[in-house]
Amino acid sequence: MLPIKRVVCGVSGGVDSCISALILKRKGFDVIGAFMRNWDSKDESGQCTLDKDCEDAENICRRLEIPFHEVNFVKEYWNDVFTPLLHDYQSGLTPNPDILCNRHVKFKCFLNYAREKHGADAIATGHYAQTSAGPFLEEMIPGKPVKLFKGNDPIKDQTLFLSQISQDAIRHTMFPVGGMLKKHSTGICFIGKRNFADFMREYSHPTPGRFIDVDSGEVVGRHDGVQFFTIGQRALIGGRSGAYYIAHKNSKTNDMFVALNHDNPALFSKTCSVSDMHWISGSPPPSREMECDFRFQHANPVVPCKIAVQDNPACVSVTLRHRLYALTLGQYAVFYNGNECIGSGRITSTAVSEALDEKFKKISSLTYGFLSTEKNRASV
């Protein structure tokens, strides 16, 4: 590999990217700072800090005495991240926009921009992750796949969000702060501090449906759309003695099963099927079955599991050692071999979701009959 000279560092205005740019400059690289505008704040009525972040990023680059550029990926973000996100929510799924943004924008469009616009040898970000190539790609071995490892901070490790990026991207990305303890974290930029359901209502029309008790089949309430809820979330249903939680969503009928009490078995899963599997090394493990660790949410600890790779290496079946709460369709199952993140894929079904799909079919006529009876009584 040729010596790396020019590095384009993604600067967000936050502490992590600022420290990354500073470290790179002190290491003697020809550093260029670039702020990615991935969301057009003029398209929405809520508050967004993007303009302030851009100003902060420019000030940081000025103080570091490195060139600053702003690059617009609004169109790419809308097409490859936000539009699929809306479709998934309306289909009853719960996507992860941060994973999609990294895959399609930050480690694809941005990498191409750095190469084509600035003739960069590599890019750098403030993510808390590490690779086998070293923080400055100084340990790169030609012809050997680069592995992705957890950051040194076990709580703030960000490999889950990087689990879908390509081998080409990993081979050309520096993570200067991956070996440090994390200083600060931010949310999804286009949402800011607002409630996500309120934000979604600006882009999605209501699709009213029913809350159905998963155990009794009784209609216990109404809601304004499956896209405004996620599995495991508390359903605010008035007039009930206990708390209900979302257990399963049916986007065809707009009905949702709700489970009474947080420890209801309908809220827990031990197995799942995964599709669109992305292996970071570029190919699946040599063994069709292997023991590894699993997580599907950034804040949750890893759980031991056993995976079985199907004939199609993009499909994997997963058996967890322990049941997990609210294992959610549409989220990404991320797999680890010790500290190495080996890849991820989308959760397409669980044993619970399959059973509840069948239950929806069986009780649909009864519940609709119940509704018709209630409607007739109301009109008398």
Describe the structure.
The chain is 29% helix and 28% strand. The strands form 3 sheets. The chain has a 6-stranded antiparallel beta barrel. Strands 3-2-1-4-7 form a 5-stranded parallel β-sheet, with helices on both faces. Strands 9-8-12-11-10 form a 5-stranded mixed β-sheet, with helices on one face. The protein has 8 helices and 18 strands. The protein has helices at residues 15-26, 50-64, 74-90, 97-118, 159-162, 167-171, 196-200, 351-379, and strands spanning 6-10, 30-37, 68-72, 122-124, 129-131, 148-150, 173-174, 209-213, 219-223, 234-235, 244-250, 255-260, 268-279, 289-295, 303-309, 316-325, 332-337, 340-350. It has 380 residues and is α+β, with helices and mostly antiparallel strands. Residues 367-380 have low confidence and may be disordered. The protein starts with 5 loop residues before the first strand and ends with a helix. The chain is globular.
Quick structural gist:
The protein is an alpha+beta fold. It is built from eight helices and 18 strands. The chain is 29% helix and 28% strand.
Task: Describe the structure using short key phrases.
six-stranded antiparallel beta barrel; single chain; 28% strand; 380 residues; alpha+beta; five-stranded parallel beta sheet; 29% helix
Q: Give helix and strand order, one letter per element, not per position.
A: EHEHEHHEEEHHEHEEEEEEEEEEEH
Task: Tell me the structural class.
Answer: alpha+beta
Query: How many individual β-strands?
Result: 18
Helix content: 25-40%
How confident is the prediction overall: mean pLDDT?
Answer: 89
Give the low-pLDDT segments: 367-380
Largest sheet composition: 6 strands, antiparallel, barrel
Strand order of the largest sheet: 13-16-15-14-17-18
Percent of sequence in beta strands:
25-35%
Oligomer: single chain
Q: Roughly how many Å is the radius of gyration?
A: 23 Å
Shape: globular
What is the helix tally? 8
The N- to C-terminal Cα distance equals 81 Å
